[in-house]
Amino acid sequence: MDRLGFFKHGLSALMDAATTVVGMKKAVESMAEAVDEALSNIKTDMCLHLPSLDAKMYEDAKNTLVELAQMGYTTLEVGGYFGDTIHDQKVAVFNEMVRSAGLKVVAAHLNREFKAEVVEKTEAGESAQCKPLNNDEEVVSEAPKFPAEHQWWTEALDAVKTLGCKSVTMAKVPAFAPQDAKLMAETYAAYFERIADMAQERDMKFCYHPSVTELKADDGESFFDLIAQKCNPEKVFFQIDTFDALEAEVDIFTLLKHYKGRVLSLHLHDRGVVCDSGDIDFDKVVKCGYDCGVQNVIIEQRYFTLPPMNCIERSLQNVTMLSSVRL
């Protein structure tokens, strides 16, 4: 029984006692109905980053989803989109599995690396070919092209929209040399804004999830900071991972406050079971997140100290016990 159910159960027991003592059965029944109505809009939405269970999803997607719902998860952040399939299932089939399990998809991770078309200098000055933007060779670059990426994002965004997604997140920027950071940030800021526009057309928001490397500061400024400065704050939002912030030696509270209103979701992520390591004060992080405009907290598992489903279940139990987690 969740905390909301426990509260209502206890309240019902108290009301039964009151009717016996004062004989006001009708009044108490009316009060119970009023409480039920007042609490009807309060839901315990526990979200799982589904790529945490990639192997289980490949083995038995349908029963894995059912088991997650039985644990108490209610919503999902999906990933692994490849040409009309998601988590190795046709999008329509996956959608039906999710609905049958009593779950909802609210977010998705979609990754598509951007490579600009550039013209390589040769002795003849005539040869042209497509190369990554951060290539070390001397190049003459025109405005970045977008046709291949545009087509992919059109299909991917349309697919996750059918699942009910409210936001999409990209968490993959290719490796780059330190001297190329500003150029890469400028390129990806423009790329993110284009994706954000496409997402907005479908009533979804776009988020960027920085990695450990992208969060680490170099001379007081990180690649994430460069991206944040260059992106339109009304278009591009962020998803911050608690363990990535820890590994990058970033003060997550300062980060959340600095980007207040721009961090839409948190990945609650630990060394193993969430909340077990003691290295992160998750209660304080979630409270700070909510105070700074975070809308969703999402459990993620990358490291397993127990069998995957046991880790996922224990993480859920630990998170639901946090006083800062809203019912």
Describe the structure.
The chain has 12 helices and 16 strands. The protein has helices spanning 3-22, 25-39, 54-71, 91-100, 147-163, 181-201, 212-215, 223-230, 242-247, 252-258, 282-291, 308-320; strands at 47-49, 75-78, 81-82, 85-86, 89-90, 104-109, 117-120, 129-130, 139-141, 167-170, 205-208, 217-218, 221-222, 236-241, 263-268, 296-299. It is globular and about 50 Å long.
Which structural class fits the helix and strand makeup?
Answer: alpha/beta
What is the molecular shape?
globular
Strand order, biggest sheet? Answer: 1-2-6-10-11-14-15-16
- Using the coordinates above, name the CATH class of the largest domain: Alpha Beta
CATH topology of the largest domain: TIM Barrel
Protein topology:
Elements: H1 3-22, H2 25-39, E1 47-49, H3 54-71, E2 75-78, E3 81-82, E4 85-86, E5 89-90, H4 91-100, E6 104-109, E7 117-120, E8 129-130, E9 139-141, H5 147-163, E10 167-170, H6 181-201, E11 205-208, H7 212-215, E12 217-218, E13 221-222, H8 223-230, E14 236-241, H9 242-247, H10 252-258, E15 263-268, H11 282-291, E16 296-299, H12 308-320
Parallel strand pairs: 1-2, 1-16, 2-6, 6-10, 10-11, 11-14, 14-15, 15-16
Antiparallel strand pairs: 3-4, 4-5, 7-8, 7-9, 12-13
Helix pairs in contact: 1-2, 3-4, 6-8
